[in-house]
Amino acid sequence: MAPTNPGLKHLSNALATPDQLSNSSSSIDGVPADLETSIRCAGAQLTQTAGILLHLSQDIISQAIVIFTRFWLGADGGSLRIYSVKDVSAAALYLAAKLSFLPTSPRSVLNVYTFLLSRDASPLWFVKPDGAPKAPPAPETYILTEGGYQSARLVLLRIESVILRTLGFDTHVALPHTIALTYLQTLGVAKPAVAQRVIQHLNAALLSPQLLYVTHQPNALAVAAIYLASREVGVKLVDGDWWEVFDVDREELGFLVVGMQSTEGFMRAEASQWKDKTIPMVPDEVEAEIERRRMMQEGE
Questions:
Q1: CA distance 290 to 185
Q2: Is the pLDDT of residue 140 over 70?
Q3: 22: which of 61, 119, 186, 187 lies 20 to 30 Å off by Cα?
Q4: Predicted confidence band at 4 (pLDDT cuts at 50, 70, 90)?
């Protein structure tokens, strides 16, 4: 990660370098780029849903998704052929909550993940692509046994330590949400509809295939969300290049606006691509998908 400005330490993040973005451990291990993107996005959605079920704040969930995303970056990051997305997601969420004022227990985290990853009970489209069950699933399909809990707890704590070592124990995550609301006040925008759209764009950007949260600083994300939201709601902001006041140039703003706007289309494309199929969540499933693709190519 590139170093942050010491004077803005609490409002900025260490950003991914171009080399980290183009040479992930997964790509070095032969995982196709589109498959890596799909799995990483599914892991972010898994983290988001688990956080909601655990009644964690959006700040904690967002921090967990950023930590989860950082883990897979660069040649020194985690490889999808070695580490399970579901385990890294659970450990990132557990770690983010632990660092907050609302820590949650390993048992609570693991119970939620057992439910979300149950092929019979899960509400997630990429785990259970055939939709909601027609009848209530049997409890044993989504309830963690005591023995299962003890084993899963050891894995959770081990992966937590792996994440910390991989990130060099740098768990600082500055988020753009509060910054964006402050900027709205500075711009004199009082409409709740604008603030709501800003937060929606910032939350959706956590799933961006361009990895916007690890490539751009929070102030730039905040400005792009405000720009989009104001245009969508029909609120005129101050004249001139107001974004430059917040240290964002036109080129960066344009890239972020396009990236945020593309997230919805990307998610629709993912749902279409993986229709009737589950997205791999563990290394064995990743291996099976890579082999399936290889055989299809050989058969052509």
A1: 50
A2: no
A3: 61
A4: very low
For residue 6, what are the contacts with CB-CB under 8 A and spacing of at least 6? none
Look up the CATH number of domain 23-173. Answer: 1.10.472.10
> How does residue 129 score in pLDDT terms, banded at 50, 70 and 90?
confident
Give yes or no for residue 116 having a pLDDT over 70. Answer: yes
Instruction: Please return the burial class of 265, using the count of CB atoms within 10 Å of its CB with bins 0-12, 13-18 and 19+.
Output: exposed
The CATH architecture that domain 177-270 belongs to is Orthogonal Bundle (1.10)
Q: Where in the chain is the domain with CATH 1.10.472.10?
A: 23-173, 177-270
pLDDT in tens, 161-212: 999 999 999 999 999 999 999 999 999 998 999 999 999 999 999 999 999 9
CA 57 – CA 39 distance, rounded (Å): 24
pLDDT given at position 7: 44
| 100 has a pLDDT exceeding 70 | yes
Amino acid at 158: R
Instruction: Using the CB atoms, write b or e for 103-117: b if 16+ within 10 Å.
Output: ebebebbbbbbbbbb
- Residues 6+ positions from 206 with CB-CB distance below 8 Å: 44, 48, 62, 65, 66, 213
